[in-house]
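Hello Y.,

Per our agreement to keep a running log of every chain we model this quarter, I'm adding this entry. I've kept the format consistent with earlier entries: sequence first, then predicted structure.
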Amino acid sequence: MSPSTPSRGVLVTAGAGGIGRCIAATFARAGDRVYVCDVDADALAATTADLTEAGPGEVAGQVCDVADEAAVQEFVAAAAQRLGRIDVVVNNAGIAGPTSLVEDMSLADWRRVLDVNLTGQFLVSRAAIPHLKRAGGGSMVFLSSLGGRHGYPRRAPYAVVKRGTLALVETLAMELGEHGIRVNAIAPGLVDGDRVRRVFAGRAESAGRPIDEVEAEALALQSLKYMVDPDDIGALAYFLASDAARSISGQTIGIDGGSRSIA
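Predicted structure for the entry above:
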């Protein structure tokens, strides 16, 4: 964003760590005003302070569980009031869920993944769409996953919600295009960080295999033999929300090192 371009109001869910923090930081560095939510109050306070200090954009936020309808409505209303307008919505919030066979999975674990990862996206989108329309258009970016494009053994609820995200994105793109609102999905593969390490550990424990073997097997399926830098996902989200992507909507953009499948 150039100095003469007005700053945008940007909403990011789960923006206090990992991919969400990188996305919030990317928009803030470009001078946008960002409002984030997270369930971790301490991480939220640290993130908003650090990113605002780094500037030039302002970053603020509040605690919110995106599976809670009332909390989401409060979050989006507070964002609109703080930012003055909402131009960009990044639906990033999600949990990894259980690592187990379907036959061994509890209904509570299944439901929690659906509630946070998919219903949460619906709730945030429903609350934010009127604000995007009032702004005269804008962009919505959803975080899906390589796990939503292939079957994902021992991770059934995660695969189901991430594929559901793709259907939600395509539907919203069709519904909102006439209002100048573009809707796209990002589908990361293996993203470097604590989360994927926990996934590898859970998969290794569940299958009774060494964690190094599990990681090597996953990377063997990629053309590029390294995990995705979360900052690259922030850059892709920024691009999709920019005028450079003004003709892109209803699409899923993979950022997975050229993966052919998922282990």
